[in-house]
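Sample entry was shown:

___
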Amino acid sequence: MYGTAPGDRSMAAEERRGLDGETLKLIAIAAMTIDHIAFAFVPDGTALAILMHAVGRITGPVMFCLAAEGYHHTRSVPRYILRLAVFALVSFLPFQLFVYGRELPVRFSLTRLNVIYTILLGVLAVHVRHKVRPMPLKILLIGALALLSVPGDWGTTGFFLVLTFEFYYGDFRNQAFAYTLVVLFDQYVLHLFTSPVFSLLYEGTLDLSAWRYGAENLGLVLPLLLLRRYNGRRGGRGRWDKWLFYAYYPAHLLVLGGIRVLTGV
């Protein structure tokens, strides 16, 4: 992650302090909770909601990066993929409850899928990139997985960020550059700056309406500040630490979704 060759990463990690994978995961969990509380209970478009969603933008990119790291660190890729698939399935109904609340019975949708589903497809694409040899078949399979990622939380953005982080595995500078390009163009961050200029040039007024909802995407800068300090170590002290995000994700969705139902929010 610091531009060192893969063989030198363990040495570099020992030589400098930073954030290990478990610490990054805990930060991502805290940011996700803040973001989801805002989604469920804070009026959209308010200054508080924008701030909370900006903090929440930490979670996706950090987890996409850790998913790419996990592909290289896991002892068994098939078991890693199976674990993602199981928890994507376990999280399906809690995610639906969280998104729709009391309206779940009438708005239930098989095409509104959670972020673990998106990560699963990203990791599958990484596996295809490494294991499938004929280039036409590789492109076809990754393209098919990209299409399947559309209904997932973070959708194709999350899918390609997993691929991006893994493609430049061990080279943080290139990871950061590629990530920034995705954020600028795919997440409309650049639009925040160009939209007022266009309105001033063509309409004669300074239209800042894009900032009301889009300013939260400026929080996408925050993951880079954290990932820059990633030291390459897995972290954690127990054998169950790797299950923390998988267990917390559906559990907190159930709690927040249940509160939405009970309060009628």
